[in-house]
Amino acid sequence: MLRWVRQQLGFDPPHQSDTRTIYIANRFPQHGHYVPQKFADNRIISSKYTVWNFVPKNLFEQFRRVANFYFLIIFLVQLMIDTPTSPITSGLPLFFVITVTAIKQGYEDWLRHKADNEVNGAPVYVVRSGGLVKTRSKNIRVGDIVRVAKDETFPVDLVLLSSDRVDGSCHVTTASLDGETNLKTHVAVPETAVLQSVANLDKLVAVIECQQPEADLYRFVGRITVSQQAEEIVRPLGPESLLLRGARLKNTKEIFGVAVYTGMETKMALNYKSKSQKRSAVEKSMNSFLIIYLIILLFEAILSTILKYAWQAEEKWDEPWYNEKTEHERNSSKILRFISDFLAFLVLYNFIIPISLYVTVEMQKFLGSFFIGWDLDLYHEETNQRAQVNTSDLNEELGQVEYVFTDKTGTLTENEMQFRECSINGIKYQEVNGKLTPEGFSEDSPDGNRRGLVKEEELFLKAVCLCHTVQINADQTDGADGPWHANGITSPLEYYASSPDEKALVEAASRYKLLHVLEFDPNRRRMSVIVESPSGEKLLFTKGAESSILPRSKSGEIDKTRIHVDEFALKGLRTLCVAYRRFTPEEYQEISKRLHEARTALQQREERLADVFNFIERDLELLGATGVEDKLQEKVQETIEALRLAGIKVWVLTGDKHETAVSVSLSCGHFHRTMNILELVQHKSDSTCAEQLRQLAKRIKEDHVIQHGLVVDGTSLSLALREHEKLFMEVCKNCSAVLCCRMAPLQKAKVVRLLKTSPEKPITLAIGDGANDVSMIQEAHVGIGIMGKEGRQAVRNSDYAIARFKFLSKLLFVHGHFYYIRIATLVQYFFYKNVCFITPQFLYQFFCLFSQQTLYDSVYLTLYNICFTSLPVLIYSLFEQHVHPHVLQSKPVLYRDISKNAHLGFKPFLYWTILGFFHAFVFFYGSYLLMGEDTSLLGNGQMFGNWTFGTLVFTVMVITVTMKMALETHFWTWINHFVTWGSIVFYFIFSLFYGGIIWPFLHTQDMYFVFVQLLSSGSAWFAIILIVVACLFIDVVKKVLYRHLQPTSTEKAQLTEAGSGINCLDSMCCFSDGETACTSVRRMLERLMGRCSPTRVNRSWSSSDPFYANDRSILTLSTMDSSTC
Length: 1125
Hints:
There is one protein chain. The chain is an alpha+beta fold and 1125 residues long. The strands form 6 sheets. Strands 14-33-32-31-15-27-30-29-28 form a 9-stranded mixed beta sheet, sandwiched between helices. Strands 16, 17, 18, 21, 22, 23, 24, 25 and 26 form a 9-stranded mixed beta sheet that branches. Strands 3-2-4-13-5-11 form a 6-stranded antiparallel beta sheet. It is a multi-pass membrane protein.
């Protein structure tokens, strides 16, 4: 039990040695002193909490917040010493905040547990007790033999034992791990490859020794010892034998493999970043503001304590005749009395720290997150997927993004290719309705009739049909003896290739016999096949990048083809050049001999193969070039351009090849054609990488007018980050766009962390669709998963999930903008209203000899933040739309107005704080001047007491702070009206009942009949109206002047919405006939305030505007009636 607890806490890892020994089918040795190793189970865990650690871990995270910790201290102080207010005034709100937050975070983590359980509960088949047993994925143990069928995902990291093929090979796609859609071939060792049945596998006696788990996807070292007829055969195991969790079996009916790494020890899980609590910039700002207010609180408490003792220095005030001290008080220590008085003042003023701010923010985030899921513009009809929110804590962070890191495959692209154009023998052809048509000819033109193929055209088509690694798989039905059915109709064919370009070009097989394949490698940048024609002729067909084919060509239309290739590239097509060579029988014999010697060499095999390939691939005859379109997702180019206009830099991080990545970056608009592309690729040493970085930095300084784009690969990146991090970051920040290719999953996370921790501390967003993107998604401030074809790992580990990349624009420019504006106002409004609340309490001490007498009744102290002023700001923070969603999306530049935490900086915070102190002084001294020393406000000459004075101040304060919220509201719905005016009405009704009835359960009732008596005075009513107007008038004047003299882009957009396709929204208000004489003044004020009454708005949109045409926003709750406009 103790060991289990230590493992759960991470103090006792389950394995200690450098290697692990795995007995296949868990046949442990029966003799000797064998000590079984402990391995992790096969559960995948993406949640933060468990049943055991939820309470302590959640409490620890919550008490990291300054306000929560502070109120805990205040609550304990109230329990320990005699204070002016009851402990309930601090304890109850604290308990409410902690409970609501814990429920919300617990619910979100329960959703993660639910998603994990779906994965861990997936059905799998395991060989046990001589048969195939169906069990759950989480029950797989290290050593189990697992059966995986075609198109299924591997549930653990497996060593391949056998497949349905005689040679024990199988084909796997790892798109969800490294982003590559190519097919990878894995092979079993010969001794186990023949064991193709469950019965034979059950008799297998073998042991695997391999390294402990590591994150590198492409490294695996081990050996398998197979016992056969009292003989032990040892075979090496490498990456070609390991099938990774998350990969998918293709073109193979079934395989059997033994589990070597399970659960969180699989390579996929090790590439996840450990879960950490993400905290938004707004929350960090809140903590900073709280510290400032804590300093204000301590200053007020210390000053009050010092003034109290200064006042009591005079004997008549120290012990007046009506309040004599007890003997104990006279003899008590002065230091203890000073501390006790200081703590008492601390408790009296503690409401300047708004504890209910956190619970309101939590509710706003939780309830506001539903709008993302409900937004029909983020719904994808084809896949029936809507946007998903996994973590609502980061809603406002969507409005602060400065860098977007995106995956390529499946995120920017659809992973689908289409053949578009080709160049054959210097003539350009286009694909039109499935036919190749020479440029300038239409399909129905006289010259476009079918004709015989010339020699070069026939060779070109043979080359693209034969020079590939495509495999064809026919789905056979029972009873069919092959892919051809009896009626002559072929069954559906599936194509698998090591390159997506090949898959797009191949349409049929041929009678040619394949002799040799010269595999692609990044140094040669080409691949070749040697084939034998039906007539016995030996031919070499080669294809590759133009830079690797054209220099090796000695004949053909080289110049024309080069021009065509450049034209294809300008259109964003992926290009390949195709060439061929004929061999004489003698040449072929020599080539075949040299290839065999190089392939069987035990030393320097790669170098010898490279020499032979270069010897073969020379003196080529150029046939032509192809242009294949890598199909981008819809509106990717527009989205990237909009992000750029919004001041957001886009980095593409992909595991794909250099050429492919650059081609897609050009076609999607990430790189512009006019951009100067800088490269930091294929560096093997530290010195060359550093020298290249210095040259790039120099070029950028020299050509500072031109936009630059940077391409860097994984190996060069590792070198750059090792010792030249600062120089690399300088180069990157001066580039408009950065493309990182050949990236391992953890390298993606490292790049994100590099930007995150740079001195500017920019807000980062990562978006991807596969398991290889999980580390990056978890590292970034905001992680977004794409619901693509690569499984659900990215979605499960993301903060938000969307179906398409194009939805990112609305998520940031509309939802992010609204969430940030709403929460920025909410936070600062809370501090403002608490300054208004507690400053009169501080001022009142100057009039009561600092006796710690409270100005307000304890019920008002408790309910001020919970009931009287909480709902208007909560509703504002859910529904406010200071600019219409369409305008925000069509004008990405408005996003710049809120970037870098503009609305929660020091200046706005200082303005709200000073405004709070100003209003508090007006409340207190306005009421004091009205009541005066000996003034009666009642007709019978009766005087008001201190409770009536406090109630007058409190009444003015509740009305003013509620009206202030109304002034900040631009978008009025019936809910806003209901809670704004309803809060004021509720305060009056509650006060009448609270003070008008003698409640038996209250020990004292100081407020009995006080409120009724206050409202019976006409002078009091006049004072309330006068003080409220005096407070708000200055604020209105300031808003009017600033909107006239220094309007922001957002405020200009509010005034020019009519010119953006929005009718009748000139001032965001419409007016019917019969306007009064004051209407023009009212219209001007409402125009300047950006106020709107949505029930009188006609929102008609220009059908030509692409951002408006299909908008189905559900954010508008009010009815749209155009009849009054």
